[in-house]
């Protein structure tokens, strides 16, 4: 049996790292949320995680491979990286602000699909 999230939310981000699902941010019905909840996908335990730098809707994306996997949160102009060892978020950078920074998406694709100086179509 799976339990409900501690805090009901939508427009939140969700990503998986190993056997842990990370659920962060989103709209709580009254205000934007900064909170993070973790789900152990093996034991089904719900564990609180550290807050985002500020409350907002986010997209989470898992990048890397093998032991180099990491989760990034994109929302408004701030990019944060999940610190698995401490269960907290760390600011990774800022995006140039525009009127469209509220509405964004993120997707991870294999390196070979992205053009670079080494990999021209």
Please identify the oligomeric state: single chain
Class computed from helices, strands and strand pairing: mainly beta
Rg calc? 15 Å
Instruction: Let me know the average pLDDT.
Output: 82
The counted number of beta strands is 8
As a percent range, the share of helical residues equals under 10%
- Main β-sheet, spatial strand arrangement: 1-2-3-4
In whole angstroms, the N-to-C terminal distance is 49 Å
| Low-pLDDT segments, ≥5 res | none
SS summary, helix count: 0
The SSE order reads: EEEEEEEE
Tell me the fraction of residues in β-strands, as a range.
35-45%
- The global form is globular
Q: Largest sheet, if any? A: 4 strands, antiparallel
Short description:
With 121 residues, the chain is an all-beta fold. 0% of the residues lie in helices and 36% in strands.
Structure explained in plain terms:
The protein is an all-beta fold. The protein is 0% helix and 36% strand. The strands form 2 sheets. Strands 1-2-3-4 form a 4-stranded antiparallel beta sheet, with no helix packed on it. A 4-stranded antiparallel beta sheet has the order 5-6-7-8, with no helix packed on it. Strand 7 and strand 8 form a beta hairpin. It is globular and about 45 Å long. The N and C termini lie far apart (49 Å). The mean pLDDT is 82.
